Structure to design on (343 residues):
């Protein structure tokens, strides 16, 4: 058995469970990131396309982000927050910020609880007329849970500049106390074309943090510079400030089973592989070598297919000895596997 601080992930079984489908609407969606507010578990999605009852797409009918409530007894079922009979737009698109649904996409991170009924999500504003992405910037939004379903409220247009700063929350958001206080940690990378337009920097992951009580105050945020936290924002950051490299999407959870932080992710190389690593700390401590958990099988239909938006669904086993891992198989097919770990 590896000693504490050098734990290597090992599995005794990995089982493919099936496709994750909504039980209250007809839609397919992109992405999928898991978060908690109080006792509620929510999954945030990206582009969400509406479908007819026969599961054919409704041309042009979609939202750029949506949110669903997890079924705590069935990992293959979710219930969307609806507008009429279809998934509602979660990340608000507002005319006050010169936005409209036809050209503005508002991506949203996983939610993180501040108290039993209030939380935070991090939004990324993408101006994409004609489908061409142009990341404008990012900022948090307040999330309020009413009658079991969440609504997001913008606190600003954007705070962080998509051209020069990481889009915090774009990879993962987690609340943790690492011994120096209770903080919300928001991990993100530079969008393509941003942060000096350096491809290597685009593959880096950076992190900011803030105390929950000050989560909507930009001046209260701190940024990891590679050695310690600083109040100065990271402008055109480099390898020095990065905490990860070549991460596509992923999620960090606390694993009581390993007594360490467990990072489940897909890499940035579109190879359908899901990986795991552990560490004693979110920042400032080494991570174990990456261990391959699973290689997803792409569909047999023609075209390019890859697995991405890997998420850790710890709520089905709080010990984390077993873990439901979900991922999105291009195009827009959310699938789940059950991983059983061993020491």
């Amino acid at each position: 058995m590896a000693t504490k601080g050098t734990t290597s992930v090992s599995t005794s079984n990995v089982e493919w469970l099936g496709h994750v489908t909504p039980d209250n609407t007809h839609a397919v969606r992109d992405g999928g990131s898991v978060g908690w507010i109080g006792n509620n578990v929510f999954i945030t999605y990206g582009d969400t396309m509406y479908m007819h009852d026969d599961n054919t797409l409704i041309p042009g009918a979609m939202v750029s982000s949506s949110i669903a409530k997890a079924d705590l007894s069935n990992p293959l079922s979710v219930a969307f927050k609806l507008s009429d009979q279809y998934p509602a737009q979660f990340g608000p698109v507002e005319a006050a910020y010169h936005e409209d649904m036809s050209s503005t996409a508002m991506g949203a991170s996983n939610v993180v609880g501040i108290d039993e009924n209030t939380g935070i999500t991090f939004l990324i504003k993408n101006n994409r007329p004609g489908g061409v992405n142009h990341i404008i910037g990012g900022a948090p939004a307040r999330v309020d849970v009413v009658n079991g379903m969440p609504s997001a409220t913008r606190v600003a247009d954007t705070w962080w500049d998509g051209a020069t700063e990481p889009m915090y929350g774009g990879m993962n958001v987690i609340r943790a106390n690492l011994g120096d206080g209770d903080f919300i940690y928001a991990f993100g990378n530079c969008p393509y074309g941003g942060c000096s337009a350096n491809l290597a920097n685009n593959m880096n992951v950076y992190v900011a943090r803030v105390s929950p009580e000050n989560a909507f105050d930009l001046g209260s945020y701190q940024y990891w510079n590679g050695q310690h936290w600083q109040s100065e924002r990271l402008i055109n950051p480099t390898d020095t400030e990065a905490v990860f490299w070549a991460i596509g999407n992923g999620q960090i959870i606390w694993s009581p089973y390993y007594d360490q932080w467990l990072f489940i992710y897909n890499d940035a190389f579109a190879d359908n592989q899901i990986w795991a690593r552990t560490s004693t700390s979110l920042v400032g401590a080494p991570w174990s070598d990456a261990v391959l958990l699973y290689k997803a099988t792409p569909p047999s239909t023609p075209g390019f297919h890859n697995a991405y938006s890997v998420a850790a669904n710890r709520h089905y086993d709080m010990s984390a000895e077993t873990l439901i891992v979900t991922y999105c198989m291009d195009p827009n097919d959310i699938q789940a596997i059950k991983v059983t770990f061993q020491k």
The radius of gyration is 19 Å. Residues 39 and 122 are 20 Å apart (CA to CA). The chain is about 0% helix and 50% strand.
